[in-house]
């Protein structure tokens, strides 16, 4: 009723005293605008004083909910072919040998690429060589880490695989085929394999690609090729039974006391030297890092304060503890640490250990001789990988250039959208710098505000520089009732169809029929 009365009053002013009424209204509006502007500037000024953290709306992270897997939004993992996928022909263009360099997880990606390269070239893949000796001082090789029979059997619909190049008989003499050595370009396109590499293979019968790390482009506009990579990574590459049993034993012991989180604490000499983050160490330690960097990485001017301000430094153990504490995890949280030798010693762990005393690693949970004697080798890395894969929550502290973290993020996504905590180092850097400068007010709220904007392991679009091995969605996932037909899950009997095609190809092959007939006559 009051509003209609005001309208009537405005009408009278318009008829008789409109000039005076208008001036009054304009004056009131002007005052209101000024007050609003003052309030806005005040809020902005307060935010700036608080460390340029922006507006911090009430933020809530329920730590208890993070122990459960992320929401799938109707997606489920699926790397089976969804279109015509012929089984590999009996006759191939030759043999493909590769030498996979780097650590266990860099090698893992290289193996996936090797299988795809063999498929692209219609080549017989020789079991990949792992250049373990130069990196790990460990001579286990592929056969010492992975289940070879399972690897070959799982990929029988995709490529032919042999353990070694067979010898050939020529002019009554036994001869070994020597692979023609090639160095593939980094992130080589498919065309390089179907032209340069294939030509040399056809000329020499075999090629040897070395080194073979990041030698095939990740982003390929062919979903079936990408799904083959997933079949290799998440199905064919299975660790040997002793490694699986050891890993499951550790997980069972950890889980006997409830949920547990795994953290890849990448605070090690190689990564710190690579990142150029050395100012927090004493002069002797800085000298060690500088020497390591000079011997192993290209010369580059790196300023610690600049690197840290843009999130290019690995999180320190203290920063990791502060993030988890701000998110609501308390000192009862059980944490498994996957890490090599932490640089700088125990003084960097003290604050983290004070906040989270229930820390474990594979040696503390299982002190078996097998692990003790190979804790820094391929076996120790493989066990850490499996425990992190099976943990309720996984947190990488430096996932940018870390193959271990990147592969695990992708594997956990494929394994059922298992929760991951991925700190946004760039967004967190000014908050930590403010705290170190004495501006601690609102610290926890600021951390939570940043972490709420991160993805906790659910399906999300892959955006550069995120790797395909970190996020294979949507190529390696499907929906039962999709909006896009390309996302429809393949039929449940897809393996039976592939088996039938493979069997038909074998039985229709002239050489196979001849062998069967010969065997039948001999038996008769």
TrEMBL record:
Family annotation (Pfam families): O-FucT
Ranges for region Disordered = 72-91, 500-524
* Entry's localization field: Membrane
Q: Write out the biased-composition intervals (Polar residues).
A: 509-524
For this entry, list what GO says about its biological process: fucose metabolic process
Q: Does the keyword NADP apply?
A: no
> Record's InterPro entries?
FucosylTrfase_pln (IPR024709), GDP-Fuc_O-FucTrfase (IPR019378)
Query: What is the membrane topology listed in the Swiss-Prot or TrEMBL record?
Result: Single-pass type II membrane protein
User: TM spans, by residue?
Assistant: 29-49
Q: In which pathway does it act?
A: Glycan metabolism
Name the Gene Ontology molecular function terms of this record: glycosyltransferase activity
Q: Name one GO cellular component term.
A: endosome
- Which parts form a coiled-coil structure per UniProt? none
What keywords sit in the KW lines? Carbohydrate metabolism, Fucose metabolism, Glycoprotein, Glycosyltransferase, Membrane, Signal-anchor, Transferase, Transmembrane, Transmembrane helix
Q: Which family does it belong to?
A: Belongs to the glycosyltransferase GT106 family.
Put simply, this protein is called O-fucosyltransferase family protein
Which species does the entry assign this protein to?
Gossypium darwinii (Darwin's cotton)
Taxonomically, what lineage is the organism?
A: Eukaryota, Viridiplantae, Streptophyta, Embryophyta, Tracheophyta
